[in-house]
Write a structure and sequence with these properties.
Largest sheet: none
Strand content: under 5%
Number of strands: 0
Shape: elongated
Distance between the termini: 74 Å
Number of helices: 2
Order of helices and strands: HH
């Protein structure tokens, strides 16, 4: 009997969490895509990947300022 009550309580909790998650997912509208000046408004996924790769490579190529070790 105790196991049945525990199982029923677990099912109720899972149902409530599922309903809340569904409500939250429908309430959140997708954010509009950021438009970069000089770039076309709609880029293909391949173009987006290429842009991110170029940005990452540019960030890796930028030299860091080394700290002065004169104490």
């Amino acid at each position: 009997m105790r196991a049945m009550v525990s199982l029923l309580g677990l099912v109720i909790v899972v149902a409530i969490v599922g309903l809340l998650a569904k409500k939250q997912m429908t309430a959140v509208a997708p954010a509009p895509a950021a438009v970069i000046p000089g770039q076309p408004a709609a880029a293909t996924p391949q173009q987006q990947v290429q842009q991110m790769r170029q940005a990452a490579e540019a960030a890796l190529q930028t030299p860091r300022a080394m700290p002065d070790d004169s104490n």
